[in-house]
């Protein structure tokens, strides 16, 4: 990695196990961000670019902390966190992200800090969606997906 400017890594944060989105995200962002990493609850095949976190998507605030050992890398100066189901402005890439955010050397951009779990109650359709679930249904049966206790 060269030290001539900011080194960016894109972190794609999944709130559910939508593995089919990974190839599409690679197509969309591959030419814009050379360093990409996926963070996904209960990913079926974790690897060098895919972190498997043991937490349901509705509680995704711990995903970054659980997976940091997989994606923190010496030489990377900035990480851009992109939800897997949202699109980053197509004009933004690893070469202009820092300038587009008007960051001085050593600065970072965080729009605001609030508990990510608190946001789920701000979704206007939450009650409507919850009313469609059967009482016995589950978001994801995690019992078979959790690793053995150490």
Automatic annotation (TrEMBL):
Protein name: Uncharacterized protein
Lineage: Bacteria, Pseudomonadati, Pseudomonadota, Alphaproteobacteria, Sphingomonadales
